[in-house]
Amino acid sequence: METWVRPRPDRVGYRRDALLALVVALSGGLSAALYNRLGMYPEPAPLWLIILAVATFSLPLALRRRYPAIVAVVVSVGFFVTGQFSVPEALVTNIALFIAIYSLGAWGQNRRLANVVRALITVGMFVWIFVNLVLTVSDPEMLPGFSRSGVFSELAAWSVIQIATNLLYFVGAWVFGNAMWSSARQRSLLEVQATELREEREFSAAQAVALDRVRIARELHDVVAHHVSVMGVQAGAARRVVGTDPAQASASLEVIEQSARSAVAELHQLLTTLRDEEPDSASTSSSTRGVAQLPDLVAAAGVDVSLQVVGEPRALSPLIGFTLYRVAQEALTNVRKHAGPGVTADVRLRYEPDGVELEITDTGTQRRLGRGSGHGQRGMQERIDAVGGSLEFGRRARGGYLVRASIPTAGAGA
After folding, report:
1. CATH topology of 209-271 equal to that of 286-408?
2. Spans of all domains in the chain
3. What is the 3-state secondary structure (H, E, C) of the chain?
4. What pLDDT digit, counting tens, does each position of 369-386 carry?
5. What is the pLDDT of residues 98-153, one digit of tens each?
6. Position 251 pLDDT exceeds 70
7. Are 317 and 413 in contact (CB under 8 A)?
8. Which one of 1.10.3720.10, 1.20.5.1930, 3.90.1150.10, 1.10.10.10 gives the CATH number of domain 209-271?
9. pTM to 2 decimals?
10. Class at the top of the CATH hierarchy for domain 286-408
11. CA 392: distance to chain centroid?
């Protein structure tokens, strides 16, 4: 950011500058006519010089943000011509010069050049002011209504007011211009930092997805290995009894067929799962975790958790059992992280005629929603979607938080 250059405005910005220049030109012309009508100067400048002066200090403002240094110099010349050659205008020309100096400070891309040009304009204007003051003080016919006697005469007071007014004028234009440039630089820095943070989050998310896919590949291997092992055992049994006990061999072949169908179905389902937030232990096989391991999970939850099984337990496919285990694991992790101190939780596993339901509730009243990354809830949703189930989570009306997963088991192989 030390070499930061403020970007130029867009076409809309340039059109606004052109409109500003037009408004200043029209205002300058009207102001000159009014001052001339009031008799500002006994012998005002000719009309062509008035028009030239007004055009010089107003029209260049159309390019104040594209060529701020040149515009500041040209407007200063117009300001000098207006004051030096009796052009009857003393209002709009001061506004135009202030805008030009301010724009140089706010939009000058070369900061050294901007400082040099502003310094030269300011010094030149003060030299002109001091010369006029000296001429005024030395000419008795100038300002005849002001007393010149005393240590601090009326003329001296008028001179001090002129110097102070011009000092505030030029310093104000300089300071406001620099402040606007610094503000734009700070905004640009914040935008750069926001972009870097966004890119970092996207990179971290991509890394998380890649790690998830590695874990899912391991789980895929475990699920397939389970079914292939069953198929191998049954095939060996069928081979040994095929000659002596055809019925037993047929039963073994049916088990092989069912295992093959289940393996194909679970392969399809598991390949659609894209996230798993909790890293697995390298020494524990995914195929060994399921609803049977829920008591161990509850005991290691780190909070006060009760487990209840409703209905007649029955065998579930490894994928469904592992999915329920994962949902319970993620839900209890969120309870521990976000539910607050002193929380209790209930885990209920319900066996229904055509499905199974897992419900995790807690009594936490300090759950900080929106503070996490959201990957855990997305991971639960993707896993449940992969097995054709539904997931519900959110605050409970009577307090606490609810996670409920329902998975159909009709037609699912055990």
Report:
1. no
2. 11-198, 209-271, 286-408
3. CCCCCCCCCCHHHHHHHHHHHHHHHHHHHHHHHHHHHCCCCCCCCCHHHHHHHHHHHHHHHHHCCCCHHHHHHHHHHHHHHHHHCCCCCCCHHHHHHHHHHHHHHHHCCCHHHHHHHHHHHHHHHHHHHHHHHHHHHHCCCCCCCCCCCCCCCHHHHHHHHHHHHHHHHHHHHHHHHHHHHHHHHHHHHHHHHHHHHHHHHHHHHHHHHHHHHHHHHHHHHHHHHHHHHHHHHHHHHHHHHCCCCHHHHHHHHHHHHHHHHHHHHHHHHHHCCCCCCCCCCCCCCHHHCCHHHHHHHHHCCCCEEEEEEECCCCCCCHHHHHHHHHHHHHHHHHHHHHCCCCCEEEEEEEEECCEEEEEEEECCCCCCCCCCCCHHHHHHHHHHHHCCCEEEEEECCCCCEEEEEEEECCCCCC
4. 545 555 667 778 878 887
5. 999 999 999 998 999 999 999 999 999 999 988 888 887 776 666 666 666 666 77
6. yes
7. yes
8. 1.20.5.1930
9. 0.54
10. alpha beta
11. 30
What is the token pair recorded at 307?
């487990």
